[in-house]
Specification:
about 210 residues, two-stranded antiparallel sheet, about 55% helix, hpI Integrase, Chain A, 4 strands, two-stranded antiparallel ribbon, 10 helices
Length: about 210
C-alpha cells in the first residue's frame, strides 16, 4: 500500500463522529502503522505497557515479548485516548462498555475503516507496510533505511527470514547506488596507483627464473 493510503486510513479513524470512538480508533490505527502490532497484540496491551517512547508488546505467533518504538504522533494519540477511556477493566488499555475490547469486534471495525480507502485492506496490511517502509526508508524525506536486525526486533519476528520477505530491491536504485560507490572507490584509489612499465615486469619475471606455482 502507498504512503498516501496510510494517511487517508488514519484520517478516517480520526474523523469518526463520536469523539470517544475517534480517539480510540486513531490510537489503534497508529499502533498498527507505527508499531507494526497485530490486532490481537493491540487487544492485549495493558495500561502499564505504555512507555514514553514505545510500548511493551505481548507478542503472538512465537515472537518475543518486548518494547517496540512508536512515533511521537502515536504516543500523543494514546494520551488523547486516555481522556475518553472507560474504566471497565482495571488493566486493559482499550476498553468497551463491558471490559477489555474484544478481538473480533476490533478486527471487524478497524477493517471496515481501512476498506473505505482500499477495498481489499485488512489490519495485517499495516504490518506489511511498516516492515517495507522501515527497510526501504524514504529518501525524499531524508529517512534512511533501518538495519534489518532492528526491523526484526520491532516486528518481533522469531526468524530473520520472516523479515527478509519484505526486502524489495529496486533495480534502478541498486544500479545507481553501486555505480556511485564503485566509481568513487576507483576514482579515489586511482590517484594513489602509479603506472608500471609492463615490459619491465616481464624482464624481471624472466630473469628471476621463477619456480612453478603449486
Amino acid at each position: 500500500m502507498t504512503n498516501e493510503e496510510v494517511m487517508k486510513i488514519i484520517q478516517i479513524a480520526d474523523r469518526q463522529p463520536n469523539k470517544e470512538v475517534a480517539a480510540r480508533d486513531g490510537a489503534v490505527m497508529r499502533l498498527l502503522f507505527s508499531g507494526g502490532l497485530r490486532i490481537g497484540e493491540v487487544v492485549k496491551v495493558n495500561l502499564q505497557d505504555v512507555r514514553s517512547t514505545g510500548i511493551f508488546v505481548h507478542s503472538e505467533k512465537g515472537g518475543e515479548d518486548g518494547v517496540v518504538g512508536l512515533s511521537d504522533d502515536c504516543i500523543s494519540s494514546i494520551q488523547k485516548y486516555m481522556m475518553y477511556r472507560r474504566e471497565t477493566d482495571p488493566s486493559a488499555l482499550f476498553t468497551s462498555s463491558s471490559g477489555r475490547v474484544s478481538y473480533e469486534y476490533l478486527r471487524q471495525h478497524i477493517s471496515s475503516l481501512g476498506k473505505r480507502v482500499a477495498p481489499s485492506w485488512h489490519p495485517h496490511a499495516a504490518r506489511h507496510w511498516v516492515a517495507t517502509f522501515l527497510l526501504a526508508g524514504d529518501h525524499e524525506n531524508g529517512i534512511e533505511p533501518l538495519d534489518i536486525r532492528y526491523v526484526q526486533t520491532q516486528l518481533r519476528h522469531a526468524s530473520l527470514a520472516s523479515t527478509q520477505i519484505y526486502t524489495h530491491v529496486n533495480r534502478d536504485e541498486l544500479s545507481e547506488s553501486v555505480n556511485k560507490r564503485l566509481s568513487k572507490f576507483f576514482r579515489e584509489e586511482g590517484k594513489e596507483v602509479k603506472m608500471v612499465n609492463p615490459h619491465k615486469i616481464i624482464r624481471v619475471w624472466r630473469g628471476s627464473n621463477p619456480r612453478p606455482m603449486d
